[in-house]
Amino acid sequence: METISVGLAAGLIALGVLTMVFAGIRSLVLGKQDYKKIGMMAVPFVVFGISYGVTGEVAKAGVLTATIMMAFMILTIALTGLRGTFKF
Predict the structure, then answer these.
(1) Which region holds residue 69: left if phi is over 0, alpha if psi is between -120 and 50, else beta?
(2) What mean pLDDT do residues 4-30 have?
């Protein structure tokens, strides 16, 4: 029974992701989305792909991706704070 439940949950998750990808492509084709926004959403996937290519393991690539994205977030927050402080 657990196997069936896990399989159904995974199927629903996959169906949801597939629907979101289809809706995103449709919005892009119809001109409702900006290419910059789509590009920003692709950054974590690109970072994951690069880190997977470097490490060769999914788990290590996931941890490395999370670490890089958190470091990028901290750097962005710091730069935004400096810009507000010094009125750049």
Answers:
(1) alpha
(2) 91
Contact 24, 35 (CB under 8 A): no
Helices vs strands, H then E, count in the chain = 3, 0
Residues 6 or more apart whose Cβ sits within 8 Å of residue 8: none
Can you tell me the distance from the alpha carbon of 11 to that of 42, in angstroms, rounded to the nearest whole number? 23
Tens of pLDDT, residues 27-76: 888 888 777 877 888 899 999 999 999 999 999 999 999 999 999 999 99
Separation between Cα atoms, residue 47 and residue 66, nearest integer Å = 9
| Predicted TM-score (pTM) above 0.70 | no
Question: What is the torsional sign of CA 62, 67, 72, 74?
Answer: positive
